[in-house]
């Protein structure tokens, strides 16, 4: 049996020796380096793309779904005693906040600029319990929406489009018609801009907030409200909770939740993440095939050495391990470099995105619901990617190692 010094197993000793030794075959060296680079790129791209998809999923949950109502309970007629309704709803163990709401559609007009908007009449004291809008205020604050003063809060880009600054006046036009001696006229009211917010998402561009009592006056429903919006401890329970509330509350109510308006978007992100994961795993698999080619070339180059080891009594398993070690070193280098590169890019993807936009002088994500590139590194997924790449590398060594033990010593040593 062949032995080596320092108590190192012969297969590991020779495998490491082959890795460190100077190559006579430049083509082999190039393919070995290409294998490491290919695996590095495949693993890093997989880490980056999954981190970005995780970022989009997180932003949808925390930012977009923190701004829109997670669930709502409406009355078929305007609700008079909404405080009593809120008191009954807050008893549900999955409900963490309740706020009244009046909803209407209209248009904002300033000079010759007109924009369609979705108007929410809110109570600022209760709104903070169900929305994260206060976290994104740029100018002014939500508390400036005082009853009777007809203040309005807009998204910052909408305010720019309408050429508005803080304390400017703007006209809100509702589609409800008024019959006057001059004919049928749309209902309109002058408001004062008291605040702007920026959520960097398409959702906020058409969102307008006014005081609950001002909205009631415009719709002539007084102190009545359309319904209440809810904040839940687990937003994924929204369909179940909203259905339970509509079924158990005493009164004529119906419910709605975020899955009806934004569920398709969330499911699309999950589906895209799954499909991209499968496609990129195939790319990593293709990169690993380079390891097979590298080891087969090594086996052909080292046939004489393999034959000598066999004639000296080296076992077939020990011979196989020589090439397994060689392949695993390539796999480990590619995986480690790929994970490190992927984590570095993922951690700085926002700055990279801004740099590319400034270089191209154009916005790249204006067509999406979020106008920036979020990223969230999931270390469990990174570990899975590393294990997947290492497992494929190990499997890639089996066929070349099997070919190595099939070497005929007599045939290999004939021309040595």
Tell me about the largest β-sheet. Answer: 6 strands, mixed, barrel
State Rg: 33 Å
Which structural class is indicated by helix and strand composition? alpha+beta
Distance between the termini: 22 Å
Dominant shape? elongated
Reading the helices and strands in chain order gives HHEHEEHEEHEEEHEHEHHHHHHH
Number of separate domains: 2
Mean pLDDT figure: 79
Strands, total number: 10
Task: Give a brief description.
The protein has 416 residues and is an alpha+beta fold. The chain folds into 2 domains: 206 residues, no CATH class; 138 residues, no CATH class. It has 14 helices and 10 strands.
Would you mind describing this structure in some detail?
It is a single chain. Helices cover 52% and strands 21% of the residues. The chain has 416 residues and is of the alpha+beta class. It has 2 domains: 5-62 and 266-413, no CATH class; 95-232, no CATH class. The protein has a 6-stranded mixed β-barrel. β2 and β3 (113-122) form a beta hairpin. The protein is elongated, with a radius of gyration of 33 Å.
Entry keywords:
416 residues; disordered N terminus; 14 helices; 21% strand; 6-stranded mixed beta barrel; 10 strands; elongated; alpha+beta
Write the layout of secondary structure elements.
Layout: H1 10-20, H2 26-67, E1 71-79, H3 82-89, E2 95-110, E3 113-122, H4 124-127, E4 137-140, E5 151-155, H5 156-161, E6 169-180, E7 183-197, E8 207-211, H6 212-219, E9 225-232, H7 238-248, E10 253-257, H8 258-301, H9 303-311, H10 316-347, H11 349-360, H12 379-396, H13 398-405, H14 409-413
Parallel strand pairs: 3-8, 5-7
Antiparallel strand pairs: 1-9, 1-10, 2-3, 2-6, 2-9, 4-7, 5-8, 6-7
Helix pairs in contact: 1-10, 2-8, 2-10, 2-12, 8-10, 8-12, 8-13, 10-12, 10-13
